[in-house]
Amino acid sequence: MSVYRTSEAQVDAKAALATLHAAVDAGVTFLDTADVYGHGGNEQLVGRLLADRRGEVTVATKFGITGDLMARRRQARGDRAYVLECADASLTRLATDRIDLYYLHRPDPAVPIEETVGAMAELVRAGKVAHLGLCEVTAAELRRACAVHPIAAVQSEWSVWSRDVEANVVPAAAELGIGFVPYSPLGRGFLAGTVTASSLDQDDLRRTLMPRYHDHNLPANLAAVAGIAAVAAAAGATQAQVSLAWLIGKGAEFGLPVVPVVSTRFPARVAENLASVAVRLSPEQLGALDRIADAVSGSRSRDLQWVSAGRE
């Protein structure tokens, strides 16, 4: 399945819509968004695409983060009333009568996950949602959720340099027959070779929210991912393509479907990313990529409770 994650970046709406159409024209069948991206504006943008092409795509969206996703004041919320309220608001913005895959964006530490998933199950019974998903859950949280209602997909960060989910969450998903949807599979540009020490402004939010982008970690991390370029050259592919191919290979290794979601604003990048499905990596190349995570400096989130690794 081809996937395109609509970008939360501030872009010209006309250009963004053109990129969405180009992605679907290229064979993308799965769009990923959330109510917090652009404070609802991203869902509205996707809704404009759906007005003409609803039958061509599967749409996933998310709820559960209040405040600003990229700011210090973000929080998780998962009480029943909020679940039902958010679903109706997303349906309106998307201008559709059903959400194909509805994710809890983050578990609410103040609300048992059984309560949140129970409310999400009400949406399935009402015909407003087809399938349920969870983001950044631990293996234990996933099992508890599955006892309430079937879970179709887990979305968490997973990439060449972020592999903590392989310890517990990925094996649990494989055991339960749940698909895995890695976000930031290109390390927010780092693994694709588009991030350098000089390209990160001092006020770049990645520096604020993600320790591995801090000045004292950048040199080690730039050295760690340099091996991706060597693998890409040997494979006749780009760094982005081999990073995505590695993830697909990991899915086969763990025995579960893996569908990376990639953010971009440019049609050329969509085409580049789609071509990763044809990249074949040798065992030696996969091994070289496997070793990169061992040399990475800094955690993937300033607040480890915000991601599953901090709660496992």
UniProtKB/TrEMBL annotation:
The record's listing under Pfam families reads: Aldo_ket_red
> Residues of the signal sequence?
none
Keyword flag Cell division: no
Instruction: Write the record's keywords in alphabetical order, separated by commas.
Output: Oxidoreductase
Q: Where is the NADP-dependent oxidoreductase domain?
A: 8-293
Q: Which GO terms describe its cellular component?
A: cytoplasm
UniProt-recorded Gene Ontology molecular function terms: oxidoreductase activity
UniProt cross-references to PANTHER family, sorted A to Z: AFLATOXIN B1 ALDEHYDE REDUCTASE, ALDO-KETO REDUCTASE YAKC [NADP(+)]
Stated name of the protein: Aldo/keto reductase
Organism name? Amycolatopsis balhimycina DSM 5908
